[in-house]
């Protein structure tokens, strides 16, 4: 996609997409309404708006999606700072005066804390799954014991009923004679 400003490197005559992904490695600035990219920023203590590293307490309040997004924002900033440091080294500038190491340290610290918070969540999840598994096993064991007790109670009831019927032969005879006489009676009427 050709840019509306024409080629960014006119002496080569090559048109370059101003939204190219490699421009993310350089700090975008505007001058007179036109964007340009700074390869090495001079250290300006009054205009330096880079803040502090995120604390673990702040990160714990963030969702996983927010942490994921923040990770890549900080990673992009680290890449930008590394590009500036490499460019300063290439140009022979004093890297210490640019203050890049302090910004890079804050980025690394934030990334380490993001990993720490995610690891805390992973350990909490694994602990919860372990507790769930133990309680599930206990519930299954209790259900198995209750089922065995119910089966044993039913078995005892049937055995008791059978013993009662065997101990009272008159009732058993009445039941048998009732079933034996019904078909004969039906057969005689026909």
From TrEMBL:
One of its GO terms (biological process) is mitochondrial translation. One of its GO terms (cellular component) is mitochondrial large ribosomal subunit. Belongs to the universal ribosomal protein uL29 family. It comes from the Eukaryota. It is found in: Mitochondrion. This is Large ribosomal subunit protein uL29m. It comes from Dichomitus squalens. Keywords: Mitochondrion, Ribonucleoprotein, Ribosomal protein. One of its GO terms (molecular function) is structural constituent of ribosome. Pfam families: MRP-L47.
